[in-house]
Amino acid sequence: MTVDSAVTAIAHPNIALVKYWGKRDEEYILPHTDSLSVTLDIYPTTTTVRLDTALDRDQVTVNRAPATGEMLTRIRTFLDLVRGMSGRAEYLRVDTTNTVPTGAGLASSASGFAALALAAAVAYGLDLNPTGLSRLARRGSGSACRSIFGGFALWHAGTGIGEEGDLSSYADPIDAGALDLALVVAVVDAAPKEISSRAAMRRTIETSPLYAPWAESSHQDLADMRAAITRGDLDAVGEIAERNALGMHATMLAARPAVRYLSPASLRVLDCVGQLRRTGIGAFATMDAGPNVKVLCRGGHAERVADALRSLSDTRSVITARPGPGARLPDGDS
Ligand code: PMV
């Protein structure tokens, strides 16, 4: 028999409160700015890998269907990297189950590559500490480096490019003390996006006159966000997250041609969030590379926020998340 024992890893998506948007090194996936996120307790990805000496290429299924196209290429390129690091040559059978809609701006690549990085590192015998794992996950999808950690995480942009940049760019967990945060996810459209975040980032950097000012203001957002988290000031956390996300979308709208992920339904959710605020509920929105909106609020308000979002006619589903765990092996040895 050529198949070694299986390694299974689980990881959850994370949502950035101060966003990553734009790379200074595409090959090493090194960002221009630091970013800060919260890992959720919903939508886990479970990935099982098996070394198989009979294979002459990695075989990948996602939700039981064979992976194809760009997704398969990205996974194989990533596994080539892990093999290079470990000095091993065998290919893998990879079976992934995603509970989050893929490619809809709901951070499926973050949970996906965090789970794959952990499972593949263990399968190939790489001895990585959490920082090393975070660096490795970053090479699959930038935001995945933050899903290695549970709760709040800060991804350091680091300095330099290539190998030097690689060493300096990873996520660290952040202590968010008693911050009672809930994120209510309003899914308005679960279809895969028309333009990948990778392509959209490149176009934004190359053509948007608003990119540089946003990246500059993002430094202040990060400093303000860290101070708000330390104070346990949830309203400030929400305000900063919302302004940072809207600014990121403004950079895309100013790209040539424009990248627009937000739909009329997204804007109706934003209206609803504004309405909630006027009734005294601290609710704030953040949006990624897709039309779906995540609404930050205190845990005690999550039910009312979810009810308000559900009452909108174009909301497909509403699910409430709390800070969740980092990437792990379910049998508990990581
Ligand atoms: O990791 P990627 O390439 O899927 O980029 C994700 C970027 C955003 O989700 C839009 C922002 C972020 O920081 O997660």
Key phrases:
single chain; alpha+beta; Ribosomal Protein S5, domain 2; Alpha-Beta Plaits; 2 domains; 5-stranded mixed beta sheet; 4-stranded antiparallel beta sheet; 15 strands; binds (3R)-3-hydroxy-3-methyl-5-(phosphonooxy)pentanoic acid; nucleotide-binding
Q: Can you give me a brief rundown of this structure?
A:
By secondary structure, this protein is of the alpha+beta class. Helices cover 40% and strands 22% of the residues. α1 runs parallel beside α2 (108-123) and α2 (108-123) packs across α3 (130-140).
What's the layout of helices and strands?
Elements: E1 7-11, E2 14-18, E3 23-25, E4 30-31, E5 35-39, E6 45-52, E7 59-62, E8 65-66, H1 69-86, E9 91-98, H2 108-123, H3 130-140, H4 144-147, E10 152-155, H5 162-168, E11 171-174, E12 181-187, H6 197-207, H7 211-231, H8 234-253, H9 264-278, E13 284-287, E14 293-298, H10 302-310, E15 317-321
Parallel strand pairs: 7-9
Antiparallel strand pairs: 1-6, 2-5, 3-4, 5-10, 6-9, 7-8, 10-11, 12-14, 12-15, 13-14
Helix pairs in contact: 1-2, 2-3, 7-8
